[in-house]
Amino acid sequence: MQSRFRSDRRLTVRMGLTLFLLGLLYVGFVAALIVLLKSWVLVAVLIGALFVAQFWFCDRIAMFAMRGRVVERAEYPGLHAVVDRLCAIADLPKPVVAVSEMDMPNAFATGRSADHAVVCVTTGLLRRLEPAELEGVLAHELSHVRHKDVAVITIASFLGVVAGLIVRFAFYSQVFGGGRRDQNTAAVLAAVLGVSAAVYAISFLLIRALSRYRELAADRAAALLTGRPSALAAALTKVSGEIARIPTKDLRTAQAFNAFYFTPATGREPGIERFFATHPSLEERLAQLGRISAELGEAAAPGGTTPGTGTSGKAG
């Protein structure tokens, strides 16, 4: 069967450009560490170990942090049925299906490749969405797998993770051990801290810009795959509204994984901080879906969904 997922050249170009720029930054970062620490072995072992751990175990780390668990068809037949249908029309290998016992309505996809992917939804999402809306959300997450941007974001974020860890290590080393070292050692640590902070800031901005675009690309792909952009728009509106009602203190744990979520766990629309956001604004996403709906000649049914959803029964 030919896939109904359309390739997105603009996303591919952006991913390639981001990886290229981060690669240059990575080379400079490693070179600076080797010069400052005077040990290429230490740098190679540290960075190599962290890269393998993040890339190889990214799905397990995300699942553990978000309390996700793999669910079988017998437990969630409706959820599996929707994933099966979408994978069939998208010509995708079926990912591992997981559920997170969280009231916050959201979903995410992770994994290093299409053959090692996980799609996870929260119980809060399953309770709140209609079948057509759930299908739109799952199509959005599967498009991340299809476009391979999940793996790209994982790789791209690696440099920022390393730089962030070094900044923390150097900072606490300076604070708690400053009196037990000579001036040369302190100068080296300060230099490492400065270089790492600069690298973290640059990689942060590059990754956030890519993250915002990939969300728009996933919305486009999902709308075209299902043929029901209004159902995805309804899901976006509903999920964003529900998250806005959740106390900020209850969202803080989830915010570390915003880049992977269907909708960020911020509880508010970004203002000036939109330049640092992981997702475009709700208005921008809805406007794009509205244009696609007009192009497809979709007739919206009452309540923002479309007739003939193609799915029936509860998701779980």
Q: Could you outline the blueprint of secondary structure elements for this entry?
A:
Elements: H1 9-37, H2 40-56, H3 58-65, E1 68-70, H4 77-90, E2 96-100, E3 107-111, E4 117-122, H5 123-128, H6 131-147, H7 149-177, H8 183-226, H9 229-244, H10 248-255, H11 282-296
Parallel strand pairs: 2-4
Antiparallel strand pairs: 1-2, 3-4
Helix pairs in contact: 1-2, 1-7, 1-8, 2-7, 4-6, 6-8, 6-9, 7-8, 8-9, 8-11, 9-11
Task: Give a brief description.
This protein is of the alpha+beta class. The protein has eleven helices and four strands.
Account of the 3D structure:
This protein has 316 residues and is an alpha+beta fold. The protein has one domain (9-295). Helices cover 64% and strands 6% of the residues. It has helices spanning 9-37, 40-56, 58-65, 77-90, 123-128, 131-147, 149-177, 183-226, 229-244, 248-255, 282-296, and strands at 68-70, 96-100, 107-111, 117-122. It has a 4-stranded mixed beta sheet, with helices on both faces. The longest helix is centred in the middle third of the chain and has 44 residues, at 183-226. The radius of gyration is 21 Å and the shape is elongated. The two termini are 28 Å apart.
